[in-house]
Structure formats: structure tokens, C-alpha cells
Design brief:
4 copies of one chain form a homotetramer.
Chain A: H1 10-13, H2 17-32, H3 39-46, H4 50-56, H5 60-84, H6 89-105, H7 108-115, H8 122-150, H9 159-179, H10 190-199
The first copy, chain A, binds a DNA duplex through helix 3 and helix 4.
DNA sequence: AATGAATGAGGGTTCATTCAT
DNA sequence: TATGAATGAACCCTCATTCAT
């Protein structure tokens, strides 16, 4: 948790104002863009006074950062828990692909914030890359390593780069879906992504 | 070309002020971020007065958009020309991968602008996706289609999504390289990307 | 007493919270300045909750005003009592000079508040001048009048202005001492002040 | 000159906007108080846009500081020039007293700013005391020293403190005049101040 | 009496853009 | 074409004050 000034206990409840502001911010930022959105907009959407936002967040930037951290922490925790229940590396990667696409397919506003607003500047980007994104990439890489060790995946591939290939593919699926004027099923792209990643495009 | 108030001819000469401002903007935006950079910064870096910028560009946004269009037009034109000289779809895709990575590896500031600053808002993103990026994805898709027709690539793959997989992978390579504190060779990631994309990660 | 919402009795007891807040305010205002100090700072320094301050003072201004009134009432009362024990106008003035300088020398924070923070605006200044300061100037003037009547001081001097001369001199001693980076004895300036005021600077 | 961002030549003219803002600020600050006055008020009074103020002054504080420096520089320069034409230390001091009182008597708004607004906080006060005021006190002290050397003034008096006595008396005359509801001649207090300072109040 | 979470009004400052020269 | 002084709209954040508990 990066958010500011929250004493561990007192604010955690508070009628759930912290969560309310976060949810409101996702909606407001997604619809209007981070830079164009005013803190007052977020406050109004959350049903609190302008000043109240600053009881839970250090400043406007902190709201955006908190969205990222909040969602990533949750996703990583849940992801790790589920992966622990799976043995087969192939199944693990399929699980990751589906979880990634399903998460965003189920919350378009969140997808917009993640794919667009959070890339707003190197200030944010560097902060994220340096931590959670790296963690996420590691998660993937380790599964690939496992697969190589078990002989399911061929060896000889640089697994760090390979992990980025998969992440990049997923990221592009979501970005494209978010920006496309056409409305199609994001999750339905999973099969092709998985097929290409596992088997390549060459004729066998 | 989206930039304003310029007669198509005057642009090329004009003491090269148009190009000078564009180059200055790439540097300034890359170092300081688009939103934090002032038009005055760009003007100073280009060695012109503030007002002069508005003789070549409609507004601040137009500078950013023009960078994108300028570079993409050039890249697409050159790309198409080179691909026309190649027969083999496999070689064509390899050519695309290398061209993509080499272009950004050779101009880090440009890479920052493309990977970070241009993602600043849905306003920009939608604009780009709807045009040049779609064009770029089409370029890739058509090569894959060709490959399938020639029997080099297996059929059954949705080529639109497959094209996005490759683009996403390339995009992630560049983004990661731009944001990484470590300095490594961007182009050296090409082999793994190509290998995974053509052959997949499964053991044959 | 100008402070609000307190029944005249409750103030004296109340666990001494009234006095505690006043003392805390002197320290806080002296260190940080009145305008930069927050009511919350005063509350914390006094060991009470923010809201509690408003049980003893009408608003932030009232705290500052109350400091002034509290200290002046005390000083005037004690001053009058002591002067009543003295006959000689010369001795009386010397007593005033020493009392003035000693009071502030013994409480630097109070001196800062009186010499700097209380001059913050015409709103305060006019309020004070119209009342306690005028009273203080009167006190001095009357002693000078007495001295003239007794033939100790020469007549012909406008005693209202003369009283201001002495007060101005004392005020400057304190202000200078408060603002000076050098740390010297404030009280030690008394002799010169008295000497000049009584005898002038001309060679006899 | 402490004011900001003014390139030595270009702004010195500028339709006299610098001077216009300064004059407007004296009026606005005197009438409404520094803290209550908005930069927009000053801009409107000066007949310029809000932003223009920031072309000539670093920030709101800088306006106040510039008033002080501007006036003091002028006063010190003119004061020194005139004193240079006078031989007699007695006449020199009389000249200082009259100049001091006349300057403020002729510009009540300026007097309010100097006697009230500029004392607003230790931040300002310390800045001023440390420089121009000290210079002013030195000016007086040196004249007194001269007088002692010439045998016009009695020796044995600490001239640093004695200078503060005179300055304090003058300062109090102006403050009292500014804050008094009664409207009387400030300059008419000069005679008594001079008489007391030179001859004391004791009967000869 | 005491608390402290919540309120919301208010303003200094920046900077994209214009336009007289 | 080119300049750069002038403009003025726009907004984040602070903090005095309130009030339900």
C-alpha cells in the first residue's frame, strides 16, 4: 500500500471511503483521462468532499498509483494462490493468460486506466516497471523455467525475453480491445495467443 | 500531415524550422515528459521564439501528433519499399522485427516519446490506433496471410490476432528497454522474439 | 478578556486547558509565525484535540488576541500595583523601563509574538492601539505629567508625544533584540535608554 | 533590487509596468492588508493581467519585499546625499527626523505598509532587519559618533543603543499616526522628539 | 467536556496561446 | 516570417471550522 496518511486501523473502515474513492477514481479517470480529471470530479463521484480525498491520499498522483498497487497486489496474490494449485506449466500459463484477459474484460474502466492512463509519463511508468510489473514478469518467467526443467518446453530460449513476449502479447490484446471502436470479446483472443505462444506460426 | 497553417511547400524549406522544432520536441518531451514540458522549452531548444512554434504547429498537441505521423509515415514508406524486395514471408517478418527494434535502438529519445509520452491519453491513443497503428498491424497481418497461402505458416490461426501478438511482443521489448535502468542491447532481443513467434515454446 | 463561549468561572479550572492552549500558542506562533501555524499545531502542542480549542476560543484570531489581552492585563495590573508603591516620578519611569524589558527578556517566545506576530495586520493593530496600548501610553504620560507638576521634569514638553518617545524606544529595544542573530542582554540596554530619555544627548 | 526575472534592460521600461504594479500594490496592501489582498487585486489596480505580475515579480511576497527595497534604497540614497551637504551633527539628526516623518506623512498608504504589513512575520522582519534597517541605524549612529567626536554630544553613551532610541521614537510616531483614528499632523511631532532626544526630560 | 473525521471555500501560480510590432 | 510581452483561464491543495458521537 502506497497511499498516504492512513493510520493502519482508523481509516481501513471509515465507511469504506478509501475503497469508494478508489472506485470512483477508476471510473472518472477512465472516462475523462487522468490529466483532464479534477480531484473535485473524483470527490463528487465518490460522494465525499474535496478535502476528504486528501485524508486518504497524499495527492492526485497518489490516487492513480494506489489504483495500480491495489489492483496489482490483489491480482498477484490471487494469481499466486491459484498457480500453487496447478502442477502442469502449460496449464499454469493458460491460467495466467485467461486470468489476465478476464480481469480486464470484466472491468473496462480499469482496463482503460491500466492500458492508457497509467502510461501517462515516465514518472509513473518507471515507478511501476521497477516493482510490480517486474514481479509479474518474473512470475511468468519462473513458470517457463519450470516447463523447461520438466522438459515440456524446449530449452535454449532466453526465458526473460520469452516472458516479455507473452506479456507484450497480452498487453497488446487489452490495449487494442480498449481502443477499438468495435466491441468484441477480449477473452476470445486467448486461444490464438496461447496457440501462437506454445506452437509458433510455422507449419510443423 | 496533421500540422496546421503551413502551405505544403513552405514546410520543406523554412530554414528547416519545422524539422528543427520536431527534433527539439522529441528531445524535450523525452527528457521532461510531454505534460511537464512547456512550449517555451521546445522553442528554446529549437532556437526559435515561442510564437514561431505556432507558425508551424496548430498547438502543443499538434507537435506530439506530428512527431508520430512524421516518423510513422517515414517508417511505413521505407518498410513497404524494403518488403517489396523480399519474397519469403519468413524473411519479411524477420525484416519487420529488426527494423522495428533498430529504429528505436538508434534513437532512444524517440523511443521514449513513442512508448511513453504518446500513450498519454485516450485522446491520442484512439487517434493513433485508428490510423497508423492499424496500418502497421495490417502490414504484418498481410505478410502472415501470404505465409499461410504459401503454406509456410500453418493455417487455422486468426491472423489479425496473430499480428497483434507479434506487435505486442515488439512493443514490450521497446518499452522494457526504455524503462529499464539497466542498459542492454535492444536489438539482441530480436532472435528470441523471432524464435518464439515462429516456433513456439513447446518442445517439438 | 475577549475569548468566547466560556463561563467566567469554568476558565480558571478546566484542568487548566485554557492556560495550556495559550501557552502552547505562544510557543507555536513564536516558532512558526501566526499565519503559518495551524490550529492543529496549537492543539497538539497543548495536548488537546483540534475541536477542543474551539471550546475555549472563538477562532484562531481569538487565540492571538487573548494572548495579548491576557499578558497586558497582567502586566498593567502588576505595573500599577508597583508604581503605587513608588513616589518619585524618576523612579517610576525607571521601574517601567526595567519591567518592560525584563518581562520580554524572560520570555523570548512572548517577545516574538508581541513584537512580530501581533503586528500582522491593521485588524489587530488598530484593535490593540485603541485599547491596551493606549492605556499603557497613558500610564507613562501620567507619570511624566506628575514629574512636570513636581518640577522634576521640565515643562513645555508635549507629554503625549514624550510618552510615545519612551515607548517607541523600549519597543525598538525589544524588536531589535528579538530579530538580532546575536544574543545579547536585553535588560542591559535599559541604562542607555534611561540616560538618553532623562538627559538627552547634548553636552550639558 | 531584489525583484525577479527582470532582465536588466528590457523590463526597466515596459510602459513602466514595474512601477505601476509597485504603486498599485502599496495602495492595495495598505487598504486591505497584505494577507487578505489577492494578487488579482494588485493586477487589477495596476491595470494589467494577473499573469503579468509574475513577469515582474517572483511571487506575492516578492512584491512586498520589493516595495521595501525600492523605497529604502531611494530613501537611503537621498538621505546620504543630503547629509553630505550638512556639517553640523545636530542639523544632520534634525534632517533625519524631518525626512523620516515627512516621507510617511506624504504617503499614508506607504506608511501603513511599512508600519504594519511589513511586520507581518519574522520571515520578512528578519530579512529587513538584517540589511536595510541595520544600514539605517548605522547612518544615525555614525552621526552621533561624529557629534561625540566634535564634542557636541556628550560622550559615555553607547551610540548603537542611542541610535535605536531615536529610530524607535520615530517608528512609534509613524505607527501611532497610522493607527490613530484621529487625524493629526505627523510632522508636528518632530519638535518634541528632537527636544527630548537632545535635551532629555529632566529639568536642567 | 472532549474528540477528530469530515467539510468546502478560497487563491497563488503556471503556461498555452495571441497579436502588435 | 519572426518575435516575445502580455494575457487570463484553470486547478490542486490547505486548513479553519463544525458536529456527530
Amino acid at each position: 500500500m502506497t497511499s498516504a496518511r492512513r493510520t493502519s486501523q482508523s481509516k481501513e473502515k471509515s465507511n469504506g471511503k478509501y475503497e469508494a474513492i478508489l472506485r470512483a477514481a477508476i471510473k472518472v479517470f477512465a472516462r475523462g483521462g487522468f490529466f483532464n480529471s479534477k480531484v473535485a470530479d473524483v470527490a463528487r463521484a465518490a460522494g465525499v468532499a474535496d478535502g476528504t480525498v486528501y485524508l486518504y491520499f497524499k495527492n492526485k498522483d497518489d490516487i492513480l498509483v494506489s489504483i495500480f498497487n491495489h489492483v496489482m497486489d490483489e491480482a498477484l496474490a490471487r494469481g499466486r494462490a491459484r498457480l500453487a494449485e496447478i502442477e502442469d506449466p502449460v496449464e499454469k500459463l493458460k491460467r495466467i493468460v485467461h486470468a489476465h484477459l478476464e480481469r480486464f474484460a470484466g472491468d473496462r474502466d480499469l482496463a482503460v486506466v491500466f492500458q492508457v492512463e497509467l502510461r501517462s509519463s515516465t514518472k509513473f511508468m518507471e515507478q511501476f516497471s521497477a516493482t510490480k510489473v517486474t514481479e509479474y514478469l518474473e512470475l511468468i518467467r519462473i513458470v517457463i523455467d519450470e516447463g523447461q526443467a520438466k522438459g515440456v518446453f524446449r530449452s535454449g530460449l532466453n526465458t526473460t525475453i520469452t516472458a516479455k513476449v507473452l506479456f507484450g502479447a497480452l498487453d497488446e490484446m487489452v490495449t487494442n480491445w480498449v481502443l477499438s471502436r468495435r466491441r468484441y470479446s477480449l477473452v476470445s483472443t486467448a486461444d490464438t495467443v496461447i496457440d501462437v505462444f506454445f506452437n509458433g506460426i510455422n507449419r510443423p
